[in-house]
Amino acid sequence: MCAVVLVPVLKQARGRAAQSDTPIVAQPQRSNEARLEEAIGLARAIDLTIAQGLIVAVNQPRPATLIGTGKIEEIKEFLDEKNAGLVIVDHPLTPVQQRNLEKEWRAKVIDRTGLILEIFGRRASTKEGTLQVDLAHLNYQKGRLVRSWTHLERQRGGAGFMGGPGETQIEADRRMLQDKIIKLERELEQVVRTRQLHRAKRRKVPHPIVALVGYTNAGKSTLFNRITGAGVLAEDMLFATLDPTLRRMKLPHGRTVILSDTVGFISDLPTHLVAAFRATLEEVLEADLILHVRDMSDPDNAAQSGDVLRILADLGIGEKEGEERIIEVWNKIDRLEPETHDALAERASGRDNIMALSAVTGEGVDPLMDEISRRLSGVLTETSVTIPPEKLALVSWVYSNVIIDERKDNEDGSVTLDVRMSEAQAAELERKLGNGSKPEKEDWER
């Protein structure tokens, strides 16, 4: 289908922002051109043919149509000229505004929220993802039931001929939608309980969790594939992946961690989606370490970073906590000019919480893995552990959870391991060994 993308720019809102003294002003502002490029990218993500993208100045938002009558006439002529049957407005539209614009332009009109919901509906592949998208879509539809059933009069109700008036068609539709919403919410409650059980099981096996977050198309899935060897779909496309993926991986020193690839964030993420995907996004809250992936080749990356941090704050990860748990990953440095590349790499090298890399070429990935290992290791202590023959099954646990420096297989069938581990790991190993050999005290205090 041929579509036209409109990006309304509300001059009044920008003027108020410029005069404001609130800290929000310090947040990087997204350029109009970047907004248009992103909106076109969203439309292309569902295989639409874009006839044209337009930036439309709005001096005074109209309650009935958002934009003025003069602009509406201009766009109508443009749509007729391009023979476009779909208009995508990169701005929230009320149900009345959407209906009026469709009448004026004689074309289908969807706003930013509707477009993102459409993309998510196509991308969801698991049962959980489909349920979340369906719930968000129904909540969106419920608020947009406008009176399009004008050919139907109020139905007669009651048992007899003189019974009271029945419900209108729009009320019947709203009731059916509400019934579907309740059904989906119950199914999602089961999903939440299942996810909580999975988290509880993971806590019993003390593998740290590392979560990838970032703006959509920042390269999270490419990085995920690079460091885990997984085959997750990774394309240069907004919301190429939607359903979260978890994989085990080994760090350079042998420790096993769980890496989680989450759905990409975006500016003005619809509240329906945030609510529906909360069970998925809460995976980030459980993470021991968060990798915030940024596309440094995008001129708009500072504003995108601000959007991501705001969503993390909404989830409960504040600025102070974020400093301890978040590593900024400056991705796609292979796309930069040599001078910009070198300057950015030098800036990153002087800071502990920033790593510059290219997930495509692999440049900088090894230092990132070392930093993850360092962050998750805690205070490691060298010690020696002898595992008796009757408990050799513990050797596998030791290899999966601590750093092994040397192994010696003894004549009596026992195994002696020189290891480096944290105090918590040592306590867990002692518990598992029971009356068997324990880490030697003098080695532990080294």
From TrEMBL:
Record key words, sorted: Coiled coil, Cytoplasm, GTP-binding, Magnesium, Metal-binding, Nucleotide-binding
Top-level taxonomic group: Bacteria
A Pfam family assignment: GTP-bdg_M
Compartments where located: Cytoplasm
Keyword GTP-binding (UniProt): yes
Gene3D superfamilies: 6.10.250.2860, GTPase HflX, N-terminal domain, P-loop containing nucleotide triphosphate hydrolases
SUPFAM superfamilies xref list: P-loop containing nucleoside triphosphate hydrolases
Domain Hflx-type G: start-end pairs: 208-380
Coiled coil regions, renumbered to chain: 167-201
Annotated InterPro entries: G_HFLX_dom, GTP-bd, GTP-bd_M, GTPase_HflX, GTPase_HflX_N, GTPase_HflX_N_sf, HflX_C, P-loop_NTPase
Keyword hit for Metal-binding: yes
SUBUNIT field: Monomer. Associates with the 50S ribosomal subunit.
Family the entry assigns: Belongs to the TRAFAC class OBG-HflX-like GTPase superfamily. HflX GTPase family.
Function comment: GTPase that associates with the 50S ribosomal subunit and may have a role during protein synthesis or ribosome biogenesis.
Name of the protein in question: GTPase HflX
